[in-house]
Amino acid sequence: MEAWKRFLRLENSKFVDLFMGQLKATLRCTVCGHESVTFDPFWDLSLPIPSRSGQVRLQACFDLFTKEEVLVGDEKPTCSKCQKRQKCTRSLSIQKFPRILVVHLKRFSPQERFGGKLNTTVDFSMNGLDLSPYWAGQTPCRYSLYGVANHSGTLLSGHYTAYCRHPYTAEWNEYNDSRVHVMDQRNVNSGKAYVLFLELAGSKHRSGSTHV
């Protein structure tokens, strides 16, 4: 909370209220067990995709993002208790979820040659996406999808489209340059999904939606 208050003293706006979250990073020394915790704000989460092809669940991307990492060799940090570089583990969790969560799927990988892209289909829930396992809190944390930015092509040449859910009719529409048309919800999930926009359950104002 103190880290969050310090951040708000420097930057506080409606955009922060809607889109800003907070990450918790825990560094633990494997020799003495000392833990060092830091908190950092984020506008979006960039999630790695654990498979180069086929289909994976969005939760698998979160699992890989929050997976405990072992720091050895040149990556060994200095333990503040041991006062020397030690083998440590580093793990991430989400301390504060934003009302609007922006998830970037890392489709462009350094391992892909010639600007290639991972076309893996990331399976995501349209409603009731439970992200509680990745939260430092205790109560349920559920999101509903309301927008997807899609990318077709490669790193060198591509085209963007968007799928958006109407806040009142709940119909899904495809936006492709100047063309807009109603689409089948079953087609929202595809291997072209690049950025996901999710809304925290119960975050709407009485006067309507928080969509901007």
TrEMBL record:
Keyword list, A-Z: Hydrolase
Family matches, as InterPro entries: Papain-like_cys_pep_sf (IPR038765), Peptidase_C19_UCH (IPR001394), Ub_carboxyl-term_hydrolase (IPR050185), USP (IPR028889), USP_CS (IPR018200)
Enzyme Commission code: 3.4.19.12
USP domain location: 1-201
One Pfam family here: UCH
SUPFAM superfamilies reported for this sequence: Cysteine proteinases
Chain segments annotated as coiled-coil in the UniProt record: none
Reaction it catalyzes: Thiol-dependent hydrolysis of ester, thioester, amide, peptide and isopeptide bonds formed by the C-terminal Gly of ubiquitin (a 76-residue protein attached to proteins as an intracellular targeting signal)
GO biological process: protein deubiquitination
Keyword Hydrolase carried by entry: yes
GO molecular function, one term: cysteine-type deubiquitinase activity
Superkingdom as given in the UniProt entry: Eukaryota
PANTHER family: UBIQUITIN CARBOXYL-TERMINAL HYDROLASE, UBIQUITIN CARBOXYL-TERMINAL HYDROLASE USP2
Name this protein carries in UniProt: ubiquitinyl hydrolase 1
Source species: Amphibalanus amphitrite
Primary gene name: USP2_20
